[in-house]
Amino acid sequence: MARLKTRSIDCQSQLVAHFDQSAADYEEAHGDAGRLLDYRLALIRERCEGRSGVLLEIGCGTAIHLFSLAPAFSRLVGTDISAGMIDAAERKAQTSPYRDRIELRVDAAEELTTVNDGSVDVVLCVGAFEHMLDRGQVVCQVSRVLKSGGAFVLLTPNGGYCWYTFLAPLLGISTRHFSTDCFLNSVEAARLVQSPGLSLTVRDFWTFIPKGDMPGWTAAILEVLDRLGRIFRLGIFRGGMILTAIKNG
Fold first, then answer.
1. What residues contact 220, with CB distance under 8 A and at least 6 apart?
2. What average pLDDT does the segment 156-167 reach?
3. Under CATH, which number does the domain 12-247 receive?
4. Over 60: is that where the pLDDT of 242 sits?
5. 90: buried, middle or exposed (CB in 10 Å: 19+, 13-18, 0-12)?
6. Is residue 78 helix, strand or coil?
7. Which bin fits 236, alpha (ψ -120 to 50), beta or left (φ > 0)?
8. DSSP string of 210-242?
9. Contact at 8 Å (CB) between 78 and 63?
10. How many beta carbons lie within 10 A of that of residue 214, not counting itself?
C-alpha cells in the first residue's frame, strides 16, 4: 500500500485540477469494483422508495451510479466541478442504451446554476460530499432544486468511524485525501441536512472500509468490526453513513 498523502487545497480551482488530472484512470480503490457498486446501488434503490421522474447526481464523477439507475428514471442529470470527469462520463454515456435520457454538466454542487428550482425528484450524492468545500451551501442548493416531497439521498464516510477517530491516528496514518476533506459524524450530518427546508427520515450506516488507504491487516480487523457493528448496530464500527431527507411541502 502506498502511504496516503494529504494534498493541500487552497481553493476550488486546485480541487478541480486534481480531479481533471485523475479522470482518465479514475477507478475503485477500496475493493472489488463490481461488488461494491452493486452494494451501493442496492442501498440507493431502497432509499429512492420507487421514485421515478428526474434524478440529479451531484459530484457524479464518471457517473457510474447514474448509468446503472437510468432504467428507473425518465431523466437523469449528472453534475461535477471537473470537466475531465464529465468528459469521461460522456464517453461512457455513448454506450448506454439510456443515453437519450442522460445529461452531464460541469456545475459545482455549491451553485447548480444549470438546474432549475423545484425541478428534481431525487438528488443523489455518493462519496463526494466530504470533498465539497461548502457543504452547507450544497445542501441549500439541494433543497432549492428538489420538488416538494423530493428526496436527498446521501452516502458519505462516517466521521465517527473508529478508523478515523482512533486507529488511523494511533498508527500515524493520514485519512484525508485533501486538506479540506471533512468527515461528519452522524449528529453533525443530520443537523446539516435538516437545516434548509429538509426533514431527515433515515439515518443509518453501511459497510465502507477504505482499504486503499490502509495496510491489509488493518482492513481485515475492520471487516470483523463491521460485522459486529451490523449485528449490534454500533455506528462506531461502520465506515459509511447514509441519510435520506425529504423536501418539506
1. none
2. 98
3. 3.40.50.150
4. yes
5. middle
6. strand
7. alpha
8. -GGGS-HHHHHHHHHHHHHHHHHT-GGG--EEE
9. yes
10. 22
C-alpha cell read off for 226:
463491521
CA 120 to chain centre: 18
Distance from C-alpha of 199 to C-alpha of 191, rounded to nearest angstrom: 10
- Grid coordinates of 97: 442504451
Q: Is 146 helix (H, G, I), strand (E, B) or coil?
A: strand
Calpha distance 207→223 (Å, rounded) = 9
Would you say residue 1 has pLDDT above 60? no
Whole-prediction pTM: 0.97
Q: Nearest 5 degrees, angle CA 177-CA 46-CA 128?
A: 15
Domain ranges of the chain: 12-247
pLDDT on residue 196: 85
Burial class of 153 by CB neighbour count within 10 A (0 to 12, 13 to 18, 19+) = buried
**Residue 158 cell numbers, joined:** 462516517
According to DSSP, the β-strands at 198-206 and 146-157 are unpaired
Do residues 26 and 196 make contact, with C-beta atoms less than 8 angstroms apart? no
Please give the grid coordinates belonging to residue 216: 491489509
Task: Catalogue the long-range contacts made by 27-34 (C-beta closer than 8 Å, 24 or more residues apart).
Answer: 29/210, 29/211, 29/212, 29/213, 30/208, 30/209, 30/210, 30/211, 30/212, 30/213, 31/209, 31/211
The residue whose grid cell reads 486507529 is 167
The C-alpha cell that represents 191 in the structure block: 443537523
Which has the closest alpha carbon to 203: 154, 162, 141, 161? 154
